[in-house]
Amino acid sequence: MATESKVTVAHYLFTRLRQVGIKSLHGVAGEYDIEALEYLEGAGLKWVGCANELNAGYAADGYARVKGISALFTPSGASSLAALSPLAGPFAENIPVVHIVSCPSPSQLDGQAHHALKNDNSNLGLFADMHKRVTIAQTHLNDTATAAADIDRLLQTCYQRSRPIYLALPTSILAAEVIATPLATPLSILPQPNTPEIEATASAAILFQLYQATRPCILVDGGALRRKITPVVEKFVRESKLPTFVTAAGKSAIDESLANFAGVYTAENGGAMRDFIGGSDCVIWIGGLGDASNAPAGFPKGLSTLRTIAFHDSYAEVGYARYTVHMRGILNRLSSVIDLSRVKTTPFRPSYPRSGDSPGSDYSGLTAGDFAKLSLSKHSDITITHAWLWRKLSEWLQPGDILLTECGAAFKGVSETVLPNGCLAISQTLCKSCGYALPAAQGAALAAREQGRLGRTVVFVGERGLQATAQAVGTMLQHNLDVTVFVITDRIFGTNKGYVTDETEKSVARKPWGDMPKWHNGNVPAAMGGKTMLGRGQERRERAFRTYGVMTKEEVERLWGEKEFKEAGGMNFVEMYMPKDEAPRAAKLACR
């Protein structure tokens, strides 16, 4: 009788990660990691060491939004606790991240010298308990007999439920052997096909309600992006021809050039959008993620359940009836059987700006008086403003680009940008962690390169976000990632002098809690190990970067028009100057 081949537990785990699409492992190396990391190369994985757990966690988040799943590796104890914050975002926003925590063996714990919180051997259990609030499942691989099955189960749970999981990996089990046979069969992580009878019943109920409606519409949310079903969703949107809105989390889920694309529906973009959706007798909500800033106050609670058709990952709700069907299957079926002659459509005039709109046109249902209150006319026409920037960005972005925006001004402003088809928008719409965007851009850029994705990675951050996670710039440079970073600043470059109008000086009291260190932002890439690319036409080299500073609209347009800026490899690092009291329209509305 032939002996079954065996592999180590570490090799089994890392091979499974590779099989589900993970090629790079973000993390922080510690005393318990080192032995485990020796097994990475044999499984075909690449190590991406980060300066701290915050950067590593945000990078894993960005990586997963492009690839569909990611992995984070930290030592147990203080390091694993530092990862709680960056795991909160993926938990809130349905991002599958495998958090592997290397930990000491039971014999090593006897000495009580390993990041102890209590004077007993329950420390590892305490750390796992703390992660229960931000992970969907937890396990400790301490039994060789069940280790392989536990690994498979957690990876399936992570992907299928689209949430982080916690996997403790003690040093004592790394070299233990398990049967290798399961590795010959790829892990089944995709949902099973819908039961035909249930899918048919759900489809009939959905179409009955849709055909009865006089003013139906569609709202696409972030779940469509998380489950990688945007082609299916877009097909349904195209086939139905219904007015279609997206939430902030759902931005980039469909082609924004479609005739029936109606705009981004957020808490601040109310007015005509809220009236239209609130007055709809059939709202088709696809991939819902609930939050006041993602979907406006009053939705969906403000709508009658009887008027809502909600598609979630593993079920659909038609009024108060729930059907156990996955979004992909039911939407495909609806696209193929819908009878457009029975669907009544009421066109919606988009309050969303489209490329070619004149500046100042159509401001989401605001009256002339409302807009006058928000006027930024006190600034000169040459000054870069949010009202101009985010619409102008629509012209510069290209299909396939990945656009990341920091919480705050950039997140609010990007709702006015029209994305080209195939562009992916990434931001933390729910958790809103300051400093998220920069390391997430590193993870996204790495994932895009692994996929062979055409397009650039572009990130907009403020100075506070830059200072929170600036080390991510070093990681980008170390791995020669092509990223364009825009740092929005209110200071003259190379000085600590900010722009403050007389009106602002009088109306806004200076408070110390708004102060922050003044950095020479343009020096960050060099400080992080970058090598300047001097002159034009220079060949690409390791850790290459270019720095720029723009203070006027003309300078932005000139920079965006340069071929080398648009196409050059390496890092483009741009300081973009705006007045101190400048803010996007949505931010000003939120503060009224």
Automatic annotation (TrEMBL):
Binding annotation for Mg(2+): N496, G498
Cofactor(s) named in the record: Mg(2+); thiamine diphosphate
CDD domains assigned to the protein according to its UniProt record, in alphabetical order: TPP_PYR_PDC_IPDC_like (cd07038)
Stretches assigned to the Thiamine pyrophosphate enzyme TPP-binding domain: 427-532
InterPro entries, per the entry: DHS-like_NAD/FAD-binding_dom, PDC/IPDC-like, THDP-binding, Thiamin_PyroP_enz_cen_dom, Thiamin_PyroP_enz_TPP-bd_dom, TPP_enzyme_TPP-bd, TPP_PYR_PDC_IPDC-like
Gene3D superfamilies: 3.40.50.970, TPP-binding domain
GO molecular function, one term: pyruvate decarboxylase activity
Assigned keywords, A-Z: Decarboxylase, Lyase, Magnesium, Metal-binding, Pyruvate, Thiamine pyrophosphate
GO biological process, one term: aromatic amino acid family catabolic process to alcohol via Ehrlich pathway
Protein origin, superkingdom: Eukaryota
The Thiamine pyrophosphate enzyme N-terminal TPP-binding domain, residue ranges: 8-118
One Gene Ontology cellular component: cytosol
Keyword Lyase: yes
SUPFAM superfamilies: DHS-like NAD/FAD-binding domain, Thiamin diphosphate-binding fold (THDP-binding)
UniProt-recorded name of the protein: Pyruvate decarboxylase
